[in-house]
């Protein structure tokens, strides 16, 4: 387990140690609870990019939910989406690299989950399409081209994520039930949404795709800082040289991060970036 460092949230980094790579989760971390990115956060991100850092969003969101944030991606234009299943060019709206769940594996996993937890509902995210069962409780407006079908049809093609929703169980409890059912065949996690578990292909995580992206930029983990708030962020936070949890983060995150910064609604990511930039002014 990491040793938590509570001596502020930025002062241990000097100008010579300014991060070459800044990786951040979005919802619950960079994005406020009302779904907005504050002007303070926008300015801090752009200032960090101007100072020479590579900034990358690393999120559970599907590709289509990144287009409104294209002003944050920087010159490289890339975001890591679907919990690391897709390396996505936001500006060209094109998947560059995917790590998808094999349909046979996904269907076997879905059947095992439904047998043990009959009330679950399933949806899927493909790189270019969303689909759901007719009974799935979608908390967001569905895209016009949504595939509404039985789980067998939803999983007839490789998926970036299999979404498992339960109408009453909290995400932590649902994940605890799902994890032993799926074993090592897939990766199960959650991003904080109530009653929702997200399943990716085995070995897929935010950390795995971020490590590949960083290597392609010639950047090491030691030169990276990462921000997160939920269980699906844990591998990324463990990989980065310096990890930050926002004050509103899941208890598992707060237990292992190097530093704790203000909550998402208090622009915690911006506060850290502003402090890190001070020696450079």
Automatic annotation (TrEMBL):
Signal sequence residues: none
MF annotations from Gene Ontology: magnesium ion binding; phosphatase activity
InterPro entries: HAD-like_sf (IPR036412), HAD-SF_hydro_IIB (IPR006379), HAD_sf (IPR023214)
SUPFAM superfamilies, per database record: HAD-like (SSF56784)
Any GO CC annotation of this UniProt entry: cytosol
Pfam families: Hydrolase_3
Protein known as: HAD superfamily hydrolase (TIGR01484 family)
Species in which this protein is naturally found: Kribbella pratensis
